[in-house]
Amino acid sequence: MAGPLTTGKITSRIDLSVTRFAIIVAEWNEEITEALYHGAVSSLLVHGVKKENIIRKNVPGTFELSLGAQWMAEREGIDAVICLGCVIQGETPHFDYICQAVSYGLTEVGLKTGKPVIFGVLTTLNKQQAFDRSGGKYGNKGEEAALTAIKMLSF
CATH assignment of 16-153? Predict the structure, then answer.
């Protein structure tokens, strides 16, 4: 079951062949975040983004996405930042703190820089839900994050 953003190719009002995207990928839950990354890149390429205009940077975990996003958004020539991570709920409130902090942090980076900073972070109750959303039965949220970036640049 695909989400509303994964159905077909979208039309952009900007020239995506000259648009530069930074993709920040959390290394924690790597099997999930790698699948999200490949979904995002695939979607960008299908929409005419040149491979050399996609810059990948890794951060240790989802919490570090905010600072990584800020560093990339502040760079000259970066048009949008896509942040990919995965937080799986455990037995402690750690999940709540990380999810709230990264949501707030990424919002602040977008508002501060005036550039699209896309929240491509899975916040799931278990690993199976993460697999289902990173190329499984619910599509690939990395693809949706890429499409969101394109739509925001076309705003």
Answer: 3.40.50.960
